[in-house]
């Protein structure tokens, strides 16, 4: 669903585009809060268009929106308010992180969300992991630590802003895990469509984004205008980041875990190549070693899920039917 936006945001081109558009003087860079607001507007418009086209009647669409929001206010409060605030916060942290970290380092460190999500699912949802998955999580942590050590040791990254980027990515990993586990626990059995869920979240996220924009950057916006620094690259990046989350929801629905794992790995490879071509950042041997460990951990984690063994009674019943448990 659209709440997977942050996963979509780490696709091949997004970190590179954000890094490229943010790599400007402070007085020329776009306002991140305005960008987050416009992302919510685009997502709301796209989902509304799809539902209006499906209903073939704008009044029926408005009635469904009213029922989805006010028909069950308790469910709306549980499902929408908390995730909307979390994802608005994540979108802002996304730009902060990529303002201080190169795209490759961000892509690799952000994969730690797999680790934080797995731990929370084990604690809160009692979701069991296979021994291969625990090994993959350990490999992920070691690889990410190696990448961060290699980045901090390089001259290109030796500045105080690296700490800001690292803390931003860490906050994104934890908030992504919290929101993901929370939604999985709450949304099971929900009959509301993917597009309507996005509309509900956007309607809550819009006022949060507006308040954030007014609190952090209102004086600068009054002086320079809300669309300072916007060009065709910023517009493309905003549309891709906003609407890409909707496309990711469909990919998650129809693609298996192996394909998604390979897609994430290829995104990291693409970020390495793009950073080399665009920003002339040549990764060190230790950096590449850490990146390989992270990519390998993603594939192993997805390829060897936990398989619950049947009880002894079930095995006996299967044997009685002439079947064998493998």
Automatic annotation (TrEMBL):
How does the protein associate with the membrane?
Multi-pass membrane protein
GO MF term list: UDP-galactose transmembrane transporter activity
Q: Does the entry feature the keyword DNA damage, yes or no? A: no
What is one term from the GO cellular component aspect held by the record?
Golgi membrane
> Which segments does the entry list as coiled coil?
none
Entry's localization field: Membrane
* UniProt keyword annotation of Transmembrane present: yes
Source taxon at top rank: Eukaryota
Q: Which InterPro entries match?
A: EmrE-like, Nuc_sug_transpt
Main location per the UniProt record: membrane
Give the record's keywords alphabetically. Answer: Membrane, Sugar transport, Transmembrane, Transmembrane helix, Transport
Instruction: State the Gene Ontology BP annotations.
Output: UDP-galactose transmembrane transport
Q: Which family does it belong to?
A: Belongs to the nucleotide-sugar transporter family. SLC35A subfamily.
NCBIfam families per the UniProt record, alphabetical: nst (TIGR00803)
The record's section on PANTHER family has: NUCLEOTIDE-SUGAR TRANSMEMBRANE TRANSPORTER
Q: Tell me the protein's name.
A: Uncharacterized protein
- What organism does the record attribute this protein to? Pristionchus pacificus (Parasitic nematode worm)
- High-level lineage: Eukaryota, Metazoa, Ecdysozoa, Nematoda, Chromadorea
Designated gene of the protein: WBGene00102531
